[in-house]
Each structure stands twice: as structure tokens, then as C-alpha cells.
């Protein structure tokens, strides 16, 4: 899902040189994200983060009010990066075809190729980690994670609605459920690839989704 894209190269963003404080904050967030991916948020302590970052605990609280604030900022950063990368892929696909179905199929191919380029098995999904451990967070953190999933739904439902208007599906289809299928495939691919230690799972599943969408709307 939404973590699918975190493991990839992000689009270059032109910005001023970060300050020492900004670098420290990003370092803490990177360390926290890595720890959460490997052992969960509840098992990630502030002490281990400040030790790894080489700062004092007061330095941590300069940047974050508490662990929940850290979680909120991690999810917000994930959503921003995820949106940026999906926008880039969608923009490339749309630039290659004005046809909504063809551009969507190109998008899925680009997504599959991006997953093929992962150097190792996908590290996991930050949003899924938050949802799986929702009792460890305040309600607003879980709500942010749910919002990330809804953003995917909204994006793909709008695109698939364009497709269906021009190419009525060959079978009766719930377009909202089909939009959610992208998240389902992504998260399922993460779990399967990690369980089997097979990084090729993700690309294969993305291509199967591509073929299903093509058959559903094009029939060929």
C-alpha cells in the first residue's frame, strides 16, 4: 500500500540547505521509521532513538511533543511522499496517452517496474503498521492512517470512473471496491514477498492487476 512507495527513490525537490535542527529532526524520523518497520511502534523507544541519533532526550522533545506526535509526523511525511510519487507516475502515464484506460494501464506498468527495481524485499508499509497497532496510538494518529488509504481510494476511483465512462466494464463492477483493490494488492504483495523472501512478488501482482483491469474494460 502506501508504504509501497516509501522504499523507492523519491522525486527530487529543490529546497534550501536544511538547518542542523532540520537534519536532526529528519534523522530521528528516519531512525523511527526503520525501527517501526522492523519491530513495531510500541517496541520502539525514545531512548533508543536518541542514542542512535547521538542527541539527548531533551533534544528529542525539542522536535516532538511525545511518541504520538512523532507518529503523526511520520504518517504526514509518508502521505506527502506517497502522494508526490503517485503524482509523478500518474503524470508520466497521462503524458504518454490521452486515453484514460491506456494511461491507467501504463501507470500500472510503471508501478510494477518500480517495484522490480527494489534492491531487496519491500521493507513494509508505515500506514499498515499504524493500523495494525492502532491501540498504541491516539485516535487522531489512526485517523491519519485511514486518511492515507482513502486518498488512494479517491485517486483511483476518479481515474477508474473516467475509464468506465468510455469503456463500460464487461462485468458488473463496484468501482470503489476496484479502487481499493490497488491497496489490497500492494499490502498483500508486501506480506507475501516478506514471508517468502521473494522481492519479485510485488511486480508480478501489479502486472496481474494490470491484466485484470485490461480484461475488465477492454476485453482483449
TrEMBL record:
DNA-binding region: 45-64
Region (Disordered): 1-25
Molecular function (Gene Ontology), one example: DNA binding
Record domain HTH tetR-type: where: 22-82
UniProt entry tagged with the keyword DNA-binding: yes
InterPro entries: Homeodomain-like_sf (IPR009057), HTH_TetR (IPR001647), Tet_transcr_reg_TetR-rel_C_sf (IPR036271)
Keywords: DNA-binding, Transcription, Transcription regulation
Keyword DNA repair: no
Name this polypeptide is given: TetR family transcriptional regulator
Organism lineage string: Bacteria, Pseudomonadati, Pseudomonadota, Alphaproteobacteria, Sphingomonadales
